[in-house]
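[job 4471] stage=fold_predict status=RUNNING
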Amino acid sequence: MKKIRCIIVDDEPVARNILEEFTAQVPFLDLVGQFENAIKAEAFVRGGGVDLIFLDIEMPKLTGLEFLKRLPGKPMAILTTAFPKYALEGYELDIIDYLLKPIAFSRFVKAAGKARDFIDLRGVPQPSSPVTYLFVRSEKRIEKIEYKDILYMESMGNYVNIYTESKKIVAYLTLKGLESQLPAGEFIKIHQSYLVSFSKINAIEGNQLTIKNKNLPISRNYRDPVMQLVERHLLKR
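[job 4471] inference complete, writing structure tokens
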């Protein structure tokens, strides 16, 4: 199995040492660099070859979240911080997981496993015939979901609520991971926390759209792509 090339970015030497010890005990992780601040890490990451960043948030000069926002085509990121208040903003940047210090090794392994699962999903070859369904892990079972039954998906941090015509399914993966497995053009992101089935949209008014009597927000960043797609299907005089 190809190893995941990772780096540690943290201004605390003790925290870096702990994460270094943890990565050494996970066979599929390959630690290729450690940095005391995001500015030093940025040049290394832009050079390529980094799959995963274990990233602190509150650091001098450039915070971890600011660092992620300015990285083009950013690698996967697992935030490592003592401050839970940044969780929502972190997940809006499509992080893999959020680890609160002090970090237990078992929790670290679980987060690293999510990164490995995301890479495995991304690398699955597409079959020659179109796939019309997906499988997700929910509670103690694996659920099969037909694309045609999906209304919309809502990010809840490190899991996703999938709303279908008949039920809600809690899937243990990120919205980013789920989006990468869905057919392009059939689903569209309208907000950092919402991914919807385009064919299930009933109406759009202002900064909201309606799907089966449920009003969902369209954020400013996603409004233009949503409306461009709508325009292509809009009847003209």
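[job 4471] summary: The mean pLDDT is 88.
[job 4471] exit 0
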